[in-house]
Structures are given as structure tokens and as C-alpha cells.
Design a protein that fits this description.
dTDP-glucose 4,6-dehydratase; EC 4.2.1.46; NAD; single chain; 12 strands; NAD(P)-bd_dom_sf; about 45% helix; seven-stranded parallel β-sheet; alpha/beta
């Protein structure tokens, strides 16, 4: 039996990844370590919580004693680190939690992996570590320099460099993935696409930073999870793999597409003051993972949006509970008062 530690598994990408692994590898055993901060929602995994191949542990990846105990008890073969403070606006307001979780927490996990001899350590990073592109610049490759522009992306870049150092210095079998913007079910409703859909469903204004012409490269979370699975199994230690679907769109295009698909008026779009240090464009060159591991995205962007709009429409209670904060009651029932 393969034993896999997934950190941050109660979050958006983490919960989708756990569901993917349980489906594709039913003989694997997963431990989900999650601190259950604002973005951690155990309701994301209600359908698998009774699976005998799944265990949830509430805890902080920066807690050395807890992490070391888990590694000693479970003897993990594989680690997938998806735990992260990830919201850029929150990092601008207070960078400290990003340093604690994204940098210190990653180092704690790396040291445990070194001490206990894991077979593979997957660091799930972001294309934001590369910084910003101009409209005519070629997409980022794995050889692009790291030039983060927000406290969030700076903390992820630092974590990536610790991973590189642990591979080069200690031989820890680390692989790093850097993915473009994800969309899909169970995404925390303060993120861009969920805000667009849920505000439109409620008839509320949709805030649009600046001129709305910032460009992002979008990928469905299920395509991302498939790529992570492949990298975890077949990725070469010490390597970086970009993951992207070549779906570049301006934020304004995204909102207008969503409103058109929902039959809602564009008058809901409300332009607001731009975010400080707002990166103009991200774009990913994913040739390496396509050529080495045979991965390719399966989702068409517009049909993926249509499916997602339907998901939010029939799962109103889920996102309403998240927006109101009621979702935290589910975890508090079992795990006591949660961190903010």
C-alpha cells in the first residue's frame, strides 16, 4: 500500500486532488493534514470522510513536533504539499502568515521528508513566482527567472528555493510544479471566478480591478490534479514542471463570458481601484510536462465554465454557507474552535 501525505487537503485544489487520488488509486492510503484556516472546509470532502483509505488530521505544517510524529507513525512513501496561504489581497494586508505557512511550513515538511526517507516530495507552487509578462512576451518556461511581485508569490518562491536546496544539499527527491490559475468546484468564493458566478446568481455587483485587462492563463482543477498525479509518480527529482492549458483571457473577457452564459447583464460589472503591484499577465509554456509525461488538459474552457456555473447553481447551500461563515460550524463540531 502506498501511503500519501496531502497537506492542505481541505482546500480547493487539495480536496479535488484527494478525490482524484482515491478514485484513480483505490489501494493508496491518504492522510490529509490541514490547519482549517479560513479556506479549509471539511464539507469539501464529506463524500470521502468515511473511506477507510482516508484519514484527516487537523494541524499546522509548521508544527515540527506534530509533523515528525505523523511521519514516524505513518511512514509516508509520498508527500504532496498543497498547504498554503494563497490569497494575494490577504498577503498585501498581512504578509506574516504567508511567511509562517508557505516558507517555514515547507521547510518543516522537507526536513521530515529528509529524516524519514520519503520516495517523492511534490511541492505545489504557482506561476506567480515568475512575476509578470507584457502582452507580447513569450510564456514562462521552467527556465524563466523567479521575480515575484506580491508577498504571496514571494513566499511561494522562497519555498521553491528551499525545495531546490534540499534536493541539491541533502538529496531529498523533490519535484516542483507551477500551475496557472485554477477554476472548478469547491473554490473559495472570494476568488475571482467564484465571485463572478455567485455575485451574478445573487444579482450583486461584480468588482473588477483597474481596467479589467489583466491576462491570466486558466486551467480546470481536474486537469491540474491529473498533472499532479503524473508528476508525483513519474516526475524527475530536482525538476520543475509548468502546468498550463494555454487559455489566456483578460479578466474582463472572463466576466463577460460568465454573464453571457448565465443570461445576466454586463451592468453588474463594477470597476474598482486596482490592486497594488497587480501583475499584468501570466502565461505558461507546458511543453515539458506534455513531452516528458504525456499530460494534456482534457477540458475545454467554455464548457468547463458552463459546468461550473451549473455546479454553483445546484450547490447554492455550499457557497452560501462559506460566504456566511457557517461552513466552519461543521468542523467546529468535531475539532473545536478554528483559527481565523
Amino acid at each position: 500500500m502506498v501511503k500519501l501525505l496531502v497537506t492542505g487537503g481541505a482546500g480547493f485544489i487539495g480536496s479535488n486532488f484527494i478525490r482524484h487520488i482515491l478514485k484513480e488509486h483505490p489501494d493508496w492510503y491518504i492522510v490529509n493534514l490541514d490547519k482549517l484556516t479560513y479556506a479549509g472546509n471539511l464539507e469539501n470532502l464529506k463524500d470521502v470522510e468515511d473511506n477507510p483509505c482516508y484519514r484527516f488530521v487537523r494541524g499546522d505544517i509548521a508544527d515540527r513536533e506534530l509533523v515528525d510524529r505523523l511521519f514516524r507513525e505513518e511512514k509516508f512513501d509520498l508527500v504532496a504539499n498543497l498547504a498554503a496561504e494563497s490569497h494575494v489581497d490577504r498577503s498585501i494586508l498581512d504578509p506574516a502568515p504567508f511567511i509562517e505557512t508557505n516558507i517555514k511550513g515547507t521547510q518543516v515538511l522537507l526536513e521530515a521528508a529528509r529524516q524519514h526517507g520519503v520516495r517523492k516530495f511534490l511541492q505545489v507552487s504557482t506561476d506567480e513566482v515568475y512575476g509578470s509578462l507584457q502582452p507580447d512576451d513569450p510564456p514562462f518556461t521552467e527556465a524563466s527567472p523567479i521575480r515575484p511581485n506580491s508577498p504571496y508569490s514571494a513566499s511561494k518562491a522562497a519555498a521553491d528555493l528551499f525545495c531546490r536546496a534540499y534536493f541539491r544539499t541533502y538529496g531529498v527527491p523533490v519535484v516542483i510544479t507551477r500551475c496557472s490559475n485554477n477554476y472548478g468546484p469547491y473554490q473559495f468564493p472570494e476568488k475571482f471566478i467564484p465571485v463572478c458566478i455567485t455575485n451574478a446568481l445573487e444579482g450583486k455587483p461584480i468588482p473588477m480591478y483597474g481596467d479589467g485587462l489583466n491576462i491570466r492563463d486558466w486551467i480546470h482543477v481536474e486537469d491540474h490534479c491529473q498533472a499532479l498525479d503524473l508528476v508525483l509518480q513519474k516526475g524527475r527529482p530536482g525538476e520543475v514542471y509548468n502546468i498550463g492549458a494555454s487559455n489566456e483571457h483578460t479578466n474582463l473577457e472572463i466576466v463577460k463570458t460568465i454573464l453571457k452564459l448565465m443570461g445576466k447583464p454586463e451592468s453588474l460589472i463594477t470597476f474598482v481601484k486596482d490592486r497594488p503591484g497587480h501583475d499584468r499577465r501570466y502565461a505558461i509554456d507546458a511543453k515539458k510536462i506534455r513531452q516528458e509525461l504525456g499530460w494534456a488538459p482534457a477540458r475545454d474552457f467554455v464548457s468547463g465554465l458552463e459546468e461550473l456555473i451549473h455546479w454553483y447553481t445546484i450547490n447554492t447551500s455550499w457557497w452560501e454557507r462559506v460566504k456566511s461563515g457557517e461552513y466552519r460550524e461543521y468542523a467546529e463540531k468535531w475539532y473545536g474552535s478554528l483559527a481565523k
